[in-house]
Amino acid sequence: MEITGRLTADAMVKAISGERKVVNFSIAINDSYRSGGEQKKITTYFDCSYWLNTGIAEYLKKGGWVQLYGRVGVNAYINGGGEAKASLTFHTTEVKLLGAVATGDSNGSGDKGNTISSRNTNGSAGANVKGEDVQVEPTDTFDGLEGDLPF
Predict the structure, then answer these.
(1) Residues 6 or more apart from 108 whose CB is under 8 A from it?
(2) Does residue 113 contact residue 140 with C-beta atoms inside 8 Å?
């Protein structure tokens, strides 16, 4: 399954038993639909985990735009007030960074359009991440376009 959304906070690396580590982060997916002539907006949140490479965590910053591949899970629980609650989880197998957060750079330079791909198989678009090495392969940067895209 593939989902695309914005990071709600910086990713955190958590040490599990022994030397195993996991990258935990969450994303928000915004959607809209029309009901009875009225535009409705809904946001869905996913708690995500990525076990394949902790090096990607430094690139997962709040507000960043990411595309994730993996599988969805649901955690059901009873909160302190006795109410039944649930949260969506996403067990991530591949991460693609689609856009970085604006850094306030006045000249408009930065990592626009760069893709970092991290997956456990070879042959993906972008750069593969193996071990702790992270490489960035630039894609079309749309230099010279300011503001909204023309489509």
Answers:
(1) 146
(2) yes
The domains of the chain, with CATH numbers, are 2-30+40-138 (2.40.50.140)
Residues 67, 105: Cα–Cα separation, whole Å: 24
- Distance between CA atoms of residues 108 and 144, nearest Å: 9
Say how far apart CA 93 and CA 119 lie, in whole Å.
6
Question: Strands, E, within the chain: which ranges?
Answer: 2-7, 12-15, 21-35, 38-50, 65-78, 84-99, 114-115, 117-119, 137-138
> How far is it, in rounded angstroms, from Cα 21 to Cα 11?
13
Largest CA distance in the chain: 56
Backbone phi and psi for residue 52, each to the nearest 5 degrees, phi listed first:
-80, -30
Q: In sequence order, which residues have a C-beta less than 8 Å from that of residue 2 and are 6 or more positions away?
A: 67, 68, 69
Tell me the per-residue pLDDT of 63-108, one tens digit each, with 9 for 90 and over: 999 999 999 999 999 999 999 999 999 999 999 999 877 655 444 3
Q: Model confidence over 111-135: pLDDT tens digits?
A: 444 444 444 433 333 333 333 344 4
